[in-house]
């Protein structure tokens, strides 16, 4: 018989909230990234900004990863490089999108990842998302719509389309991390370094075609702008993507995506506290719906009790390496 404890713990009696909390913190820092990106990015400096961001983050991540990098196989390096290219696509679309649309529209549209991911996961595993999860996701998206558009809708723009494509790209990136068989037991830190290097390669190749070089952008930045860049590099990049990759292999892509989908809520909170935004009554109602929807969705997306209390080979090793998923029935990768 399933107990309340079994529904909220992983193998080894590890509570799921220990995985959820770092993912929510990622949503918080990503929500705060809109202000930093708005301050730093223009159409001509997007590629330079992203290259600088990853050039700062990668050496720090390499130190954190340590000897794990040298233990990577050629297959793992290749898979990590593919993830890095996907990651670069996500960030290019998101950053150009933020430049060409409002922060409110960006927050609303990127939240559609909450819908795209469980649908993609259901196709990949040939299972149907539960009605409870879809209901929770729909409630969350409705809340995001009220939250981000409480002051009225703006006319759709090219930036809106870019953010829609970014939501699709985010879904592909999350699903790829979850389902790449060669990465099931790979050290998360080492794999993050390879991802970052793959993204750097893409940005470096694109830099000659950009209007402004990274060197010129770096030289023109004020101390305040460098502070914002360091925040984007260390928190919104280094911390965020390491935690995302660590969490998605210890729970389900849908659960991680739903928690990351609270990003617009935190963007609104930070906008009110630091940017002077006023969401109004509709926005406040939307915030409540987001909280209710994500709480409901976390419960709906929790791995089945049988999986949670099953073989311990799905549990992370003591050295921090990723778990070996127990099987597709949990929503874990099967290919």
From TrEMBL:
It is a multi-pass membrane protein. It is found in: Cell membrane. The keyword Aminoacyl-tRNA synthetase does not apply. It comes from the Bacteria. The chain crosses the membrane at residues 16-37, 43-65, 77-96, 102-120, 132-149, 190-209, 229-248. Keywords: Cell membrane, Membrane, Transmembrane, Transmembrane helix. Residues 302-335 are annotated as: Disordered. Its main location: membrane. Residues 23-148, 158-294 form the EamA domain. SUPFAM superfamilies: Multidrug resistance efflux transporter EmrE. Belongs to the EamA transporter family. This is DMT family transporter.
